[in-house]
Design a protein that fits this description.
- The protein has 168 residues and is mainly alpha-helical.
- The chain has helices spanning 5-32, 36-51, 53-56, 64-86, 89-109, 117-125, 127-135, 141-166.
- It is 81% helix and 0% strand.
- Helix 1 crosses helix 2, helix 1 (5-32) runs parallel beside helix 8 (141-166) and helix 4 (64-86) packs antiparallel against helix 5 (89-109).
Length: 168
């Protein structure tokens, strides 16, 4: 048979980028805990969640109200994460108010943007959907940038977590 060089090369590049993203997630989780077993279990759970993200999208609601609630929950989660990272109630509250204001303005200007928001966000975070492009021999710059930036964000968060622990 014939060997498709583009599929092999794309698969190799894709598995390297996917692996770097998954390792970056594991490093971040490991930097948050002091116990290796807890870090391993939480990392396994997160990676399993990322693995089945495509299947979860099929059963999620796509109406406008669910999109608004999801957006508010994301803002609250980001504000909570910001509080536990920086330990400043003022900054976390300001982020929550600013995020809520953005949601309100967006709802007034373009309410249709909340339709199917949950599915769109989960599809954007799906690591395996972008990996499928590599296995077919498609080397898209957007997928490469996504994996590199995903890895860079989690490595940055790991460094910040370790720095905050060092100054305690």
């Amino acid at each position: 048979g014939s060997v498709s060089v583009s599929e092999i090369l794309g698969g190799e590049i894709g598995i390297f980028l996917l692996g770097s993203a998954l390792i970056a997630i594991g490093l971040f989780v490991s930097s948050l805990t002091e116990n290796q077993v807890v870090a391993a279990v939480v990392t396994f759970g997160l990676l399993l969640l990322l693995w089945i993200l495509d299947f979860l999208q099929q059963g999620l609601p796509a109406d406008r109200f669910s999109g608004i609630v999801f957006a508010v929950l994301i803002v609250l989660a980001a504000a909570t994460f910001l509080y536990f990272t920086i330990r400043s109630v003022f900054v976390a509250a300001a982020a929550a108010v600013a995020g809520s204001a953005v949601i309100a303005v967006l709802f007034i200007v373009r309410p249709a943007s909340f339709d199917g928001l949950i599915v769109r966000v989960l599809k954007w975070f799906s690591l395996l959907a972008r990996y499928r492009d590599f296995t077919t021999g498609l080397l898209r710059l957007s997928s490469v940038i996504y994996y590199l930036s995903f890895s860079a964000v989690f490595v940055f968060l790991t460094v910040r977590s370790l720095d905050s622990r060092r100054w305690k």
